[in-house]
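Prompt: May I have another protein with tokenized structure?
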Amino acid sequence: MSDLNISMEQRVTTADQGCSYTLVQLEGFIDAANYPKFEKALERLVESGRHQLVLDCRGVQYINSTGISG
């Protein structure tokens, strides 16, 4: 299977809503082989204080039950 690519971008919604979030864009495959990479990336975000995460899975071609459990 192919590798998993993860990109992250801090975003802020309109000023009246006052909400910021981190957009996590995923591309490729999420399976048992690369799940640790996915999990560590999310853990680092949470540990750095980013708790509002939006996962964009449009580029994910395959995800198994290991990836879904994250």
In short: Residues 47 and 55 are 17 Å apart (CA to CA). The mean pLDDT is 80. The longest helix spans residues 35-47.
